[in-house]
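Pipeline run #58 for the internal structure catalog. This entry was flagged by the ingest filter as a single-chain record with no existing model, so it goes straight to prediction. Upstream metadata was stripped on purpose; only the residue string is passed forward. Reviewer on rotation: M.T. Logging verbosity set to normal.
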Amino acid sequence: MVYFQVSRLGFNCGKDKEECSFYPDHCKECVKAYIAKIGFDTSQNIKISMMDSEEEQIKMQQSLIWYKFMDVLNIKLVILQTKDSGLLILNYPVSGSNINVDLLIGFMQANITFSSSGSLENKSDISNHKFYELQYDNFNLLLKNGNFIRICLVLDGNASESLKQKVAEFLHEYEKKYYQKIERLLKIGMLNFDDTIDFIVEAFNIKLVFPMILSHMISPGDLELINKNLIQKAIIDFANELLNSKNFFFINNLIDKVQQVVKSHPSIILYEIYQLLERNIIIPSKIESLVVEVRKFQDTRAKRIANNELISSILANDDAINNLKEKARTLDVEEAKKLMENFVKKGENAEKALIYKEAQKEYEKALYLATGFNFETNIGKISFIILELDKKIKALEIGFNLETGEKAEKKKDYINAIQSFQHAIEFLGDIGSANENASKIKKLEKRILSLQKHV
Protein backbone atom coordinates (compact mmCIF):
# COMPACT_ATOMS: atom_id res chain seq x y z
CA MET A 1 0.00 0.00 0.00
CA VAL A 2 1.26 3.45 -0.89
CA TYR A 3 0.62 6.19 1.69
CA PHE A 4 0.29 9.87 0.65
CA GLN A 5 0.39 13.11 2.58
CA VAL A 6 -1.18 16.16 0.94
CA SER A 7 -0.33 19.67 2.08
CA ARG A 8 -1.65 23.15 1.29
CA LEU A 9 -5.06 21.97 0.14
CA GLY A 10 -7.95 24.41 0.45
CA PHE A 11 -11.49 23.55 1.48
CA ASN A 12 -14.66 25.63 1.14
CA CYS A 13 -17.36 24.37 3.53
CA GLY A 14 -20.10 26.01 1.49
CA LYS A 15 -21.81 27.70 4.44
CA ASP A 16 -22.16 31.39 5.27
CA LYS A 17 -20.59 32.13 8.66
CA GLU A 18 -23.52 34.43 9.51
CA GLU A 19 -25.95 31.51 9.21
CA CYS A 20 -23.86 28.73 10.77
CA SER A 21 -24.51 28.05 14.45
CA PHE A 22 -21.20 26.16 14.76
CA TYR A 23 -19.04 29.09 13.55
CA PRO A 24 -16.31 29.65 14.69
CA ASP A 25 -15.90 27.34 17.70
CA HIS A 26 -16.45 24.01 15.96
CA CYS A 27 -15.16 24.79 12.44
CA LYS A 28 -12.03 22.64 12.72
CA GLU A 29 -14.03 19.65 13.94
CA CYS A 30 -16.42 20.07 10.99
CA VAL A 31 -13.52 20.18 8.53
CA LYS A 32 -11.90 17.09 10.10
CA ALA A 33 -15.20 15.21 9.94
CA TYR A 34 -15.65 16.05 6.25
CA ILE A 35 -12.03 15.06 5.45
CA ALA A 36 -12.51 11.72 7.25
CA LYS A 37 -15.80 11.16 5.40
CA ILE A 38 -14.13 11.33 1.97
CA GLY A 39 -11.43 8.88 3.04
CA PHE A 40 -8.52 10.96 4.35
CA ASP A 41 -6.64 9.94 7.49
CA THR A 42 -7.02 12.61 10.20
CA SER A 43 -5.29 10.67 12.98
CA GLN A 44 -2.07 12.57 12.32
CA ASN A 45 -1.55 16.07 13.67
CA ILE A 46 -2.95 18.33 10.98
CA LYS A 47 -2.89 22.09 10.76
CA ILE A 48 -6.12 23.82 9.70
CA SER A 49 -6.03 27.55 8.97
CA MET A 50 -9.17 29.58 8.48
CA MET A 51 -9.19 32.09 5.62
CA ASP A 52 -11.86 34.69 6.36
CA SER A 53 -11.87 36.21 2.89
CA GLU A 54 -10.49 35.95 -0.63
CA GLU A 55 -8.21 38.86 0.27
CA GLU A 56 -6.66 36.79 3.08
CA GLN A 57 -6.19 33.86 0.71
CA ILE A 58 -4.38 36.12 -1.76
CA LYS A 59 -2.14 37.42 1.04
CA MET A 60 -1.26 33.83 1.91
CA GLN A 61 -0.46 33.10 -1.74
CA GLN A 62 1.69 36.25 -1.95
CA SER A 63 3.71 35.13 1.06
CA LEU A 64 4.07 31.58 -0.26
CA ILE A 65 5.33 32.73 -3.69
CA TRP A 66 7.65 35.25 -2.05
CA TYR A 67 9.24 32.53 0.12
CA LYS A 68 9.68 30.36 -2.98
CA PHE A 69 11.44 33.25 -4.70
CA MET A 70 13.69 33.95 -1.71
CA ASP A 71 14.63 30.27 -1.52
CA VAL A 72 15.60 30.01 -5.18
CA LEU A 73 17.55 33.30 -5.03
CA ASN A 74 19.55 31.71 -2.21
CA ILE A 75 20.60 28.70 -4.32
CA LYS A 76 23.85 28.98 -6.28
CA LEU A 77 24.44 25.36 -7.23
CA VAL A 78 22.63 21.99 -7.06
CA ILE A 79 24.84 18.90 -6.80
CA LEU A 80 23.71 15.27 -6.84
CA GLN A 81 26.05 12.42 -5.81
CA THR A 82 25.83 8.75 -5.02
CA LYS A 83 25.37 8.37 -1.28
CA ASP A 84 28.05 5.77 -0.60
CA SER A 85 30.89 6.60 -3.02
CA GLY A 86 30.27 10.33 -3.46
CA LEU A 87 30.39 9.97 -7.28
CA LEU A 88 29.16 13.14 -9.00
CA ILE A 89 25.86 12.49 -10.78
CA LEU A 90 24.86 16.00 -11.75
CA ASN A 91 26.06 19.55 -11.23
CA TYR A 92 23.46 22.21 -12.07
CA PRO A 93 24.53 25.87 -11.62
CA VAL A 94 21.58 28.12 -10.78
CA SER A 95 23.61 31.35 -10.78
CA GLY A 96 27.27 32.27 -11.12
CA SER A 97 29.38 31.13 -8.19
CA ASN A 98 32.79 30.24 -9.76
CA ILE A 99 33.04 27.21 -7.47
CA ASN A 100 35.43 24.42 -8.34
CA VAL A 101 33.05 21.46 -8.03
CA ASP A 102 35.82 18.85 -7.75
CA LEU A 103 37.38 20.68 -4.79
CA LEU A 104 33.95 21.15 -3.23
CA ILE A 105 33.12 17.43 -3.49
CA GLY A 106 36.49 16.56 -1.93
CA PHE A 107 35.75 18.96 0.92
CA MET A 108 32.30 17.43 1.49
CA GLN A 109 33.57 13.85 1.43
CA ALA A 110 36.31 14.66 3.92
CA ASN A 111 33.84 16.28 6.32
CA ILE A 112 31.28 13.49 5.97
CA THR A 113 33.93 10.85 6.63
CA PHE A 114 35.21 12.84 9.59
CA SER A 115 31.68 13.25 10.95
CA SER A 116 30.83 9.57 10.50
CA SER A 117 33.85 8.65 12.62
CA GLY A 118 32.23 10.55 15.52
CA SER A 119 34.94 13.19 15.69
CA LEU A 120 32.65 16.11 14.94
CA GLU A 121 30.23 17.46 17.51
CA ASN A 122 26.98 19.34 16.97
CA LYS A 123 26.55 17.95 13.46
CA SER A 124 23.46 16.13 12.21
CA ASP A 125 24.00 12.46 11.43
CA ILE A 126 23.91 12.36 7.64
CA SER A 127 23.71 8.59 7.52
CA ASN A 128 20.29 8.79 9.21
CA HIS A 129 18.76 11.00 6.52
CA LYS A 130 19.10 14.20 8.56
CA PHE A 131 20.40 17.50 7.29
CA TYR A 132 24.07 18.27 7.34
CA GLU A 133 25.24 21.90 7.11
CA LEU A 134 28.75 23.19 6.41
CA GLN A 135 30.55 26.41 5.59
CA TYR A 136 32.63 26.50 2.41
CA ASP A 137 34.42 29.75 1.58
CA ASN A 138 31.62 32.34 1.65
CA PHE A 139 28.89 29.79 1.00
CA ASN A 140 26.64 27.58 3.12
CA LEU A 141 26.23 23.94 2.15
CA LEU A 142 23.02 22.04 2.84
CA LEU A 143 23.40 18.26 2.42
CA LYS A 144 20.92 15.45 2.79
CA ASN A 145 21.05 11.73 2.04
CA GLY A 146 18.29 9.74 0.44
CA ASN A 147 18.30 5.96 0.12
CA PHE A 148 20.75 5.98 -2.81
CA ILE A 149 21.81 9.55 -3.58
CA ARG A 150 22.91 12.69 -1.78
CA ILE A 151 21.90 16.23 -2.63
CA CYS A 152 23.98 19.29 -1.83
CA LEU A 153 22.70 22.83 -2.24
CA VAL A 154 25.33 25.56 -2.33
CA LEU A 155 23.67 28.61 -0.78
CA ASP A 156 24.39 32.29 -0.29
CA GLY A 157 22.84 32.27 3.18
CA ASN A 158 21.23 29.93 5.67
CA ALA A 159 18.65 27.44 4.47
CA SER A 160 15.06 28.26 5.42
CA GLU A 161 12.77 25.61 6.89
CA SER A 162 10.69 25.71 3.70
CA LEU A 163 13.81 24.99 1.62
CA LYS A 164 14.75 22.07 3.87
CA GLN A 165 11.26 20.65 3.46
CA LYS A 166 11.57 21.07 -0.30
CA VAL A 167 14.92 19.21 -0.28
CA ALA A 168 13.38 16.29 1.63
CA GLU A 169 10.43 16.12 -0.79
CA PHE A 170 12.76 16.37 -3.78
CA LEU A 171 14.96 13.46 -2.67
CA HIS A 172 11.98 11.17 -2.15
CA GLU A 173 10.40 12.07 -5.51
CA TYR A 174 13.66 12.03 -7.49
CA GLU A 175 14.70 8.57 -6.28
CA LYS A 176 11.21 7.20 -7.03
CA LYS A 177 10.94 8.83 -10.48
CA TYR A 178 14.46 7.93 -11.66
CA TYR A 179 14.93 4.67 -9.78
CA GLN A 180 15.91 2.72 -12.94
CA LYS A 181 18.56 5.28 -13.89
CA ILE A 182 19.98 5.24 -10.36
CA GLU A 183 19.96 1.41 -10.37
CA ARG A 184 21.92 1.31 -13.66
CA LEU A 185 24.37 3.83 -12.24
CA LEU A 186 25.00 1.78 -9.10
CA LYS A 187 25.28 -1.49 -11.04
CA ILE A 188 27.26 -0.54 -14.15
CA GLY A 189 28.29 3.07 -13.55
CA MET A 190 26.12 4.49 -16.35
CA LEU A 191 25.92 8.28 -15.94
CA ASN A 192 23.00 9.63 -17.96
CA PHE A 193 21.11 12.19 -15.88
CA ASP A 194 21.03 15.35 -18.00
CA ASP A 195 17.39 14.69 -18.88
CA THR A 196 16.48 14.99 -15.17
CA ILE A 197 17.41 18.69 -15.05
CA ASP A 198 13.86 19.78 -15.89
CA PHE A 199 12.63 17.92 -12.80
CA ILE A 200 15.18 19.78 -10.65
CA VAL A 201 14.13 23.11 -12.18
CA GLU A 202 10.47 22.39 -11.46
CA ALA A 203 11.06 21.05 -7.93
CA PHE A 204 13.01 24.10 -6.73
CA ASN A 205 11.12 26.73 -8.80
CA ILE A 206 14.38 27.62 -10.54
CA LYS A 207 12.42 29.06 -13.48
CA LEU A 208 11.83 32.13 -11.27
CA VAL A 209 15.47 33.16 -11.79
CA PHE A 210 15.62 32.28 -15.49
CA PRO A 211 15.92 35.09 -18.03
CA MET A 212 12.40 36.13 -19.00
CA ILE A 213 10.80 37.22 -22.25
CA LEU A 214 7.29 38.40 -23.13
CA SER A 215 4.89 36.41 -25.25
CA HIS A 216 4.63 37.75 -28.80
CA MET A 217 0.89 37.15 -28.74
CA ILE A 218 -1.26 38.34 -25.84
CA SER A 219 -4.95 37.58 -26.33
CA PRO A 220 -7.45 40.45 -26.25
CA GLY A 221 -8.97 38.95 -23.10
CA ASP A 222 -5.61 38.86 -21.31
CA LEU A 223 -4.82 42.35 -22.53
CA GLU A 224 -8.10 43.62 -21.11
CA LEU A 225 -7.36 42.02 -17.73
CA ILE A 226 -3.84 43.50 -17.70
CA ASN A 227 -5.13 47.00 -18.46
CA LYS A 228 -7.56 46.73 -15.54
CA ASN A 229 -4.77 45.75 -13.14
CA LEU A 230 -2.46 48.71 -12.36
CA ILE A 231 0.41 46.52 -11.19
CA GLN A 232 0.22 44.08 -14.11
CA LYS A 233 0.10 46.97 -16.58
CA ALA A 234 3.22 48.48 -14.97
CA ILE A 235 4.90 45.05 -15.12
CA ILE A 236 4.27 44.73 -18.87
CA ASP A 237 5.34 48.34 -19.54
CA PHE A 238 8.61 47.97 -17.63
CA ALA A 239 9.26 44.52 -19.11
CA ASN A 240 9.05 46.11 -22.56
CA GLU A 241 11.41 48.86 -21.42
CA LEU A 242 13.95 46.29 -20.20
CA LEU A 243 13.59 44.34 -23.44
CA ASN A 244 14.52 47.45 -25.39
CA SER A 245 18.06 47.20 -24.03
CA LYS A 246 18.41 43.38 -23.86
CA ASN A 247 16.76 40.31 -25.32
CA PHE A 248 15.58 39.24 -21.86
CA PHE A 249 15.02 40.49 -18.32
CA PHE A 250 15.15 39.08 -14.79
CA ILE A 251 12.29 39.11 -12.29
CA ASN A 252 14.28 40.85 -9.52
CA ASN A 253 15.18 43.71 -11.90
CA LEU A 254 11.55 43.96 -12.99
CA ILE A 255 10.34 44.10 -9.37
CA ASP A 256 12.79 46.96 -8.65
CA LYS A 257 11.51 48.94 -11.65
CA VAL A 258 7.82 48.41 -10.88
CA GLN A 259 8.23 49.17 -7.18
CA GLN A 260 9.51 52.66 -8.01
CA VAL A 261 6.11 53.44 -9.53
CA VAL A 262 3.46 51.43 -7.68
CA LYS A 263 5.07 51.66 -4.20
CA SER A 264 3.82 48.17 -3.26
CA HIS A 265 5.65 45.50 -1.28
CA PRO A 266 7.83 43.32 -3.57
CA SER A 267 5.78 40.24 -2.61
CA ILE A 268 2.64 41.85 -4.08
CA ILE A 269 4.45 42.68 -7.33
CA LEU A 270 5.92 39.18 -7.50
CA TYR A 271 2.44 37.69 -7.03
CA GLU A 272 1.19 39.62 -10.08
CA ILE A 273 4.27 38.58 -12.08
CA TYR A 274 3.54 34.99 -11.09
CA GLN A 275 -0.03 35.31 -12.43
CA LEU A 276 1.43 36.45 -15.78
CA LEU A 277 3.85 33.51 -15.70
CA GLU A 278 0.97 31.11 -15.09
CA ARG A 279 -0.85 32.55 -18.12
CA ASN A 280 2.28 32.30 -20.31
CA ILE A 281 2.38 36.07 -20.85
CA ILE A 282 5.80 36.21 -19.19
CA ILE A 283 7.85 33.22 -20.35
CA PRO A 284 10.99 31.78 -18.71
CA SER A 285 13.82 31.15 -21.14
CA LYS A 286 16.63 28.81 -20.15
CA ILE A 287 20.08 30.40 -20.26
CA GLU A 288 21.32 27.60 -22.50
CA SER A 289 18.48 28.38 -24.94
CA LEU A 290 19.50 32.05 -25.02
CA VAL A 291 23.09 31.02 -25.70
CA VAL A 292 21.87 28.97 -28.67
CA GLU A 293 19.85 31.95 -29.95
CA VAL A 294 22.84 34.28 -29.63
CA ARG A 295 24.99 31.69 -31.40
CA LYS A 296 22.45 31.46 -34.23
CA PHE A 297 22.42 35.24 -34.52
CA GLN A 298 26.22 35.33 -34.57
CA ASP A 299 26.43 32.58 -37.20
CA THR A 300 23.88 34.35 -39.40
CA ARG A 301 25.71 37.63 -38.94
CA ALA A 302 29.02 35.97 -39.83
CA LYS A 303 27.59 34.66 -43.11
CA ARG A 304 26.08 38.02 -43.97
CA ILE A 305 29.31 39.84 -43.24
CA ALA A 306 31.28 37.32 -45.30
CA ASN A 307 28.93 37.97 -48.21
CA ASN A 308 29.01 41.71 -47.58
CA GLU A 309 25.28 41.62 -46.72
CA LEU A 310 25.32 44.01 -43.79
CA ILE A 311 22.47 45.04 -41.51
CA SER A 312 22.24 48.30 -43.42
CA SER A 313 23.03 49.06 -47.03
CA ILE A 314 25.16 52.08 -46.13
CA LEU A 315 28.42 50.12 -46.40
CA ALA A 316 27.51 48.05 -49.43
CA ASN A 317 29.21 50.44 -51.87
CA ASP A 318 31.45 52.18 -49.35
CA ASP A 319 35.16 52.26 -50.13
CA ALA A 320 35.89 52.06 -46.39
CA ILE A 321 34.71 48.44 -46.13
CA ASN A 322 36.68 47.43 -49.22
CA ASN A 323 39.81 49.05 -47.81
CA LEU A 324 39.21 47.28 -44.50
CA LYS A 325 38.91 43.92 -46.25
CA GLU A 326 42.30 44.43 -47.87
CA LYS A 327 43.89 45.65 -44.65
CA ALA A 328 42.48 42.75 -42.60
CA ARG A 329 44.51 40.26 -44.63
CA THR A 330 47.77 41.55 -43.15
CA LEU A 331 46.65 42.22 -39.56
CA ASP A 332 47.66 40.02 -36.64
CA VAL A 333 45.23 39.29 -33.78
CA GLU A 334 46.38 42.14 -31.52
CA GLU A 335 46.31 44.69 -34.34
CA ALA A 336 42.82 43.54 -35.36
CA LYS A 337 41.53 43.79 -31.78
CA LYS A 338 42.96 47.28 -31.34
CA LEU A 339 41.48 48.46 -34.66
CA MET A 340 38.11 46.90 -33.79
CA GLU A 341 38.05 48.73 -30.42
CA ASN A 342 38.94 51.96 -32.25
CA PHE A 343 35.94 51.51 -34.58
CA VAL A 344 33.67 50.88 -31.58
CA LYS A 345 34.94 54.04 -29.88
CA LYS A 346 34.33 56.09 -33.02
CA GLY A 347 30.85 54.61 -33.26
CA GLU A 348 30.06 55.50 -29.64
CA ASN A 349 31.24 59.09 -30.17
CA ALA A 350 29.15 59.42 -33.32
CA GLU A 351 26.12 57.95 -31.55
CA LYS A 352 26.47 60.42 -28.66
CA ALA A 353 26.56 63.22 -31.23
CA LEU A 354 23.36 61.74 -32.76
CA ILE A 355 25.14 61.06 -36.05
CA TYR A 356 23.56 57.63 -36.25
CA LYS A 357 24.43 56.71 -39.84
CA GLU A 358 28.11 57.39 -39.18
CA ALA A 359 27.94 55.40 -35.94
CA GLN A 360 26.38 52.53 -37.84
CA LYS A 361 29.26 52.50 -40.32
CA GLU A 362 31.86 52.35 -37.54
CA TYR A 363 30.06 49.55 -35.68
CA GLU A 364 29.72 47.55 -38.91
CA LYS A 365 33.47 47.80 -39.52
CA ALA A 366 34.15 46.72 -35.93
CA LEU A 367 31.82 43.74 -36.38
CA TYR A 368 33.52 42.79 -39.63
CA LEU A 369 36.82 42.44 -37.75
CA ALA A 370 35.26 40.71 -34.73
CA THR A 371 33.67 38.12 -37.02
CA GLY A 372 36.72 37.64 -39.21
CA PHE A 373 39.06 37.09 -36.24
CA ASN A 374 36.47 35.14 -34.21
CA PHE A 375 36.38 37.51 -31.21
CA GLU A 376 33.33 35.69 -29.82
CA THR A 377 32.51 38.01 -26.91
CA ASN A 378 32.81 41.08 -29.11
CA ILE A 379 30.66 39.58 -31.88
CA GLY A 380 27.66 39.30 -29.58
CA LYS A 381 28.23 42.66 -27.90
CA ILE A 382 28.70 44.64 -31.13
CA SER A 383 25.82 42.81 -32.82
CA PHE A 384 23.42 43.90 -30.09
CA ILE A 385 24.79 47.47 -30.22
CA ILE A 386 24.02 47.54 -33.95
CA LEU A 387 20.53 46.14 -33.42
CA GLU A 388 19.78 48.75 -30.75
CA LEU A 389 21.10 51.52 -32.99
CA ASP A 390 18.97 50.16 -35.81
CA LYS A 391 15.94 50.50 -33.50
CA LYS A 392 16.86 54.14 -32.78
CA ILE A 393 17.19 54.90 -36.47
CA LYS A 394 13.84 53.26 -37.22
CA ALA A 395 12.24 55.19 -34.35
CA LEU A 396 13.51 58.43 -35.94
CA GLU A 397 12.17 57.30 -39.31
CA ILE A 398 8.77 56.65 -37.70
CA GLY A 399 8.75 60.11 -36.14
CA PHE A 400 9.84 61.74 -39.40
CA ASN A 401 7.19 59.93 -41.48
CA LEU A 402 4.42 60.69 -38.98
CA GLU A 403 5.36 64.38 -38.97
CA THR A 404 5.62 64.47 -42.76
CA GLY A 405 2.27 62.69 -43.13
CA GLU A 406 0.51 65.09 -40.75
CA LYS A 407 1.90 68.13 -42.59
CA ALA A 408 0.84 66.68 -45.93
CA GLU A 409 -2.63 65.93 -44.58
CA LYS A 410 -3.06 69.51 -43.39
CA LYS A 411 -2.12 70.71 -46.87
CA LYS A 412 -4.63 68.21 -48.32
CA ASP A 413 -1.75 66.46 -50.09
CA TYR A 414 -3.44 63.10 -49.47
CA ILE A 415 -1.18 60.96 -51.69
CA ASN A 416 2.01 61.97 -49.86
CA ALA A 417 0.23 61.75 -46.51
CA ILE A 418 -0.82 58.15 -47.24
CA GLN A 419 2.70 57.21 -48.40
CA SER A 420 4.28 58.70 -45.28
CA PHE A 421 1.90 56.85 -42.95
CA GLN A 422 2.52 53.60 -44.86
CA HIS A 423 6.27 54.04 -44.37
CA ALA A 424 5.67 54.60 -40.65
CA ILE A 425 3.68 51.33 -40.49
CA GLU A 426 6.56 49.45 -42.15
CA PHE A 427 9.02 50.68 -39.51
CA LEU A 428 6.57 50.02 -36.66
CA GLY A 429 6.40 46.39 -37.78
CA ASP A 430 10.15 46.05 -37.22
CA ILE A 431 10.58 47.41 -33.70
CA GLY A 432 9.07 47.41 -30.23
CA SER A 433 6.39 45.40 -28.53
CA ALA A 434 3.98 43.55 -30.81
CA ASN A 435 0.94 44.57 -28.80
CA GLU A 436 1.92 48.19 -28.30
CA ASN A 437 2.74 48.66 -31.97
CA ALA A 438 -0.31 46.68 -33.13
CA SER A 439 -2.48 49.40 -31.62
CA LYS A 440 -0.45 52.17 -33.32
CA ILE A 441 -0.52 50.35 -36.65
CA LYS A 442 -4.28 49.86 -36.42
CA LYS A 443 -4.80 53.60 -35.80
CA LEU A 444 -2.61 54.50 -38.78
CA GLU A 445 -4.41 52.00 -41.03
CA LYS A 446 -7.74 53.61 -40.09
CA ARG A 447 -6.25 57.02 -40.81
CA ILE A 448 -5.06 55.84 -44.22
CA LEU A 449 -8.54 54.44 -45.04
CA SER A 450 -10.02 57.81 -44.14
CA LEU A 451 -7.50 59.64 -46.37
CA GLN A 452 -8.08 57.28 -49.30
CA LYS A 453 -11.68 58.49 -49.49
CA HIS A 454 -10.33 61.87 -50.58
CA VAL A 455 -8.18 60.44 -53.36
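catalog note: Residues 376-410 form the longest helix (35 residues).
catalog note: Residues 288-388 form one domain.
status: ready for reviewer M.T.
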